């Protein structure tokens, strides 16, 4: 019997719990978590993400700020704004929405964020903590997937976890988080040979490549747990994942839908990490 993961319900539950924790933080320490999202340019998808982040942060009782900058903003101007928020003690999380316009070097921008406020977990200091097995700020999508696996009581110990896609945002941090839970991890990518042989042996298969319906049932072992990170539009503009859901669901024991699987957990982890950063600011 296949179970379909309800990422929306799980995200809602965690966010409701978070709103309670925020109230307690306010009573106990006199602060609320502060999150600033910086958006440069008018990429329509980014505008939607930023609005969703804003709405969820306010609903959970956070101080939420959004800085909207024009496409013409220079790298120096953006760094000066980040620096201002690095110094602002009411802000605990700084997120610069990617992608940035091509004249801005995103590596330089990510380096400008104080690692303690780097709620996206992309700063090399946080990457280092993660790979040393002492994660602090973790990229939100893999962190959300770990929450899903925990909530659905997926036992990872000694299991073969296969990830398709090796991006810094999803695949690589995912590998380390699964290793931390004693899974045996295989990280695959576009140059991997005999991909289907590898994926066929996966107890847990995580797919993050950005190609609609790429994973068919021929690639999946019976009873596998399948997590689909992909967000793609089909020819009718409908949102679809990297996994061909209907046929893979027949083989999987547990599977995420798109939408309503991994997506809602990403924002939730952004809020959770901002809350944790605020807590560290008063308890350390
Ligand atoms: P990237 O484009 O940065 O990385 C894609 C990865 O997939 C690369 O490592 C690439 O390999 C690999 N790949 C591409 N084609 C194949 C193939 N045919 N076989 C095996 N591997 C392949 O993507 P992201 O990690 O940023 O995003 C992946 C997907 O997840 C996208 O659809 C994105 O929209 C979605 N996403 C969803 C989020 C959510 O909150 N739900 C958050 C983040 C991303 P190589 O390195 O060799 O090029």
Automatic annotation (TrEMBL):
Gene Ontology biological process terms from the UniProt entry: L-histidine biosynthetic process; methionine biosynthetic process; purine nucleotide biosynthetic process; tetrahydrofolate interconversion
EC number(s) per entry: 1.5.1.5, 3.5.4.9
GO cellular component annotations of the record: cytosol
Pathway(s) it belongs to: One-carbon metabolism; tetrahydrofolate interconversion
Pfam families assigned to the protein according to its UniProt record, in alphabetical order: THF_DHG_CYH, THF_DHG_CYH_C
Sequence positions that bind NADP(+): 165-167
Function: Catalyzes the oxidation of 5,10-methylenetetrahydrofolate to 5,10-methenyltetrahydrofolate and then the hydrolysis of 5,10-methenyltetrahydrofolate to 10-formyltetrahydrofolate.
Subunit record text: Homodimer.
Protein name: Bifunctional protein FolD
Gene name of the encoded protein: folD
């Amino acid at each position: 019997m296949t179970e379909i993961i309800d990422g929306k319900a799980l995200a809602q539950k965690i966010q409701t719990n978070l709103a309670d924790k925020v109230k307690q933080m306010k009573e106990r320490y006199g602060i609320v978590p502060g999150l600033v999202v910086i958006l440069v340019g008018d990429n329509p998808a980014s505008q939607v993400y930023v609005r969703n982040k804003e709405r969820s942060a306010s609903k959970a009782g956070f101080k939420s700020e959004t800085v909207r900058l024009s496409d013409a903003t220079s790298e120096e101007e953006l760094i000066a704004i980040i620096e201002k928020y690095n110094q602002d003690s009411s802000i605990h999380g700084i997120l610069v929405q990617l992608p940035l316009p091509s004249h801005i070097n995103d590596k330089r921008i990510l380096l400008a964020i104080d690692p303690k406020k780097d709620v996206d977990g992309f700063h090399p200091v946080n990457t280092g903590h993660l790979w040393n097995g002492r994660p602090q700020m973790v990229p939100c999508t893999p962190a959300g997937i770990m929450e899903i696996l925990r909530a659905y009581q997926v036992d990872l110990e000694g299991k073969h976890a296969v990830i398709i896609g090796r991006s810094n945002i999803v695949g690589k941090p995912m590998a380390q988080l699964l290793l931390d839970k004693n899974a045996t991890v295989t990280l695959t990518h576009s140059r991997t040979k005999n991909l289907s042989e590898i994926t066929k042996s996966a107890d847990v298969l995580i797919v993050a490549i950005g190609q609609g319906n790429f994973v068919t049932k021929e690639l999946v072992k019976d009873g596998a747990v399948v997590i689909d990170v992909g967000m793609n539009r089909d020819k009718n503009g409908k949102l679809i994942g990297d996994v061909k859901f209907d046929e893979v669901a027949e083989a999987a024991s547990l599977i995420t839908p798109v939408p309503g699987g991994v997506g809602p957990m990403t924002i939730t982890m952004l809020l959770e990490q901002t809350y944790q950063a605020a807590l560290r600011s008063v308890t350390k």
